[in-house]
Amino acid sequence: MIFVVLLFAAVLLVSGAAIAYVIGGAAVLAFFATDNARYLAILPQQIFSRIDVFALMAMPLFILAGELMNRGGVTGALINLSMALVGRLRGGLGHVNIMTSVFFAGISGSAVADAAALSNTLVPEMTRRGYSLAYASTVTAASSIIGPIVPPSIILIFYGALMGTSVTALFLAGILPGLLLAAVLIAVNAVFAWRQGHPRLEKEEMPPFLRTIAHSLPALSLPVIILGGIVFGWMTPTEAAAVAVVVALGAGWFYAGITVKTVLEALRRTALLSGSIFLIICSVSALGYLGALERIPEAILEAVTDLGLGPVGYMLVMNLIFIAAGMVLDIPVALALLVPLLAPVALQQGADPVHLGIVICFNLCIGLISPPMGGCLLVISAVTGINYWKLARAIIPFVLVEIVVLGLLIAVPDISLMLPRAFGLGAN
Fold first, then answer.
1. What's the gap between Cα 386 and its chain centre?
2. Spatial separation of the C-alpha atoms in residues 125 and 273, rounded to whole Å
C-alpha cells in the first residue's frame, strides 16, 4: 500500500501538480495505508492549529514590504551606496554586488528577489566593464543567499512558527552569520580580482559620497526600524512588519518608484507567495500529524542511539540531509517536511533551538545556488541568458566556501548566539 502512495505522489509530480497538492494528497492516502484513517476526522483541527500561529501574521506583511521596496526604486540607491563604499577597490563591482546584497537583505529577506534585481542591474554593468558573464552571474548568485539569513527573513519566521522559537531571537542570531558570509565572499572576490585582473572604478566614476549616503537613508531606515523596534521591545515582529509596509510606501514615494500599478502588483505577488506558503504548511501538517501518530521522531532518536551518533555526529548527518533536500526542494517545503521530524532529536541532544534554526536555514539557502534545482541559479540563468550548467560549474568554488562557513557556524554556536544572549534572549 505504501508503494501505491509513493507511485501516486510520483504521478502527481510528473503531471506538474503543485507540490502542496502532491504532499497533501499523498498524506491522506498514507493515513489509509498505515491503518490510521480513523484519525482523519481530527485532521482539520491539526491543520488549523499549525497555521493559527501569531508569528505567521508577520510573514505576509514582510513579503509586502519587500515587494514594495523592490518595485519602489530602492535598488539603484543601494547600488550607489555600495559603490561609494567599496567601488574603488580592485574588483570593485564584485564587492559592490556583495555589499548591495547585504543592504538588500535587510529589505527584502529573499534570495530570489535579490538575485533577480541584481541580475537586471549589476550583471550587465559588470560584463560591460570586462567581467565575464559567468563570473558576474556567479557573484550575484553566491551573495544572494545573504538575504534569507539577515533579518527580516521570511524563512526564519517560518522556522520560528514551526518550532515555537522566538522570532526576535532568530532575527538577532542571523545578523553575525550574514555579515560573516558577506566578509568571506568579499575576500574570495578579492582573490579572483587579483588573479583575473578585474578592474576598479575610477575616481570620476564614483558617486558623491555624502550625497549618496543621504540619498540612501530612506532605504536603510527599514532594517533599522524593524530591528530597533523589535529588539528594544517597542514592537512585536508582526507590528514591525506593519510599520515596515508604511515605511516601504514612504521610501517608494521618495524614490518616485511607487504608483498605483506597482502597489497592486506588490499586493498580487504577496497574495500568491503567502497563499502558496500557507498551502504548504497545511499539506505538510497532515504529514506531520501522521508522523506523530506513527512515532517517527522517536524512531529516529532510537536509530541515532543505536548507531552511536552523538550530538556532533547527528548534526553532521542532519546537515547532509538538509543540503540534499535544499538542492531539489523549495525552502518552505524542506523546512515544513524535515524540521518537525529531525529537529526534535537535535534538541533532545542539547542543541540550542535558535542556533539550530540559523544552521538549518543557512544550510537550505546553500541549496538555492546548488544544482540540479538551485532556485537562484535558475532565475539568474533566465535573466542573464547564461547557460544554466555553465553557471552551475562556475559557482562551485563559492558553494564550497559557503559550506566551510556553515561548518564554522556549526562548530562555533556563539557566532549565532552572541547577540541574542546580549539582549537576554538566549541561554547564558
1. 23
2. 30
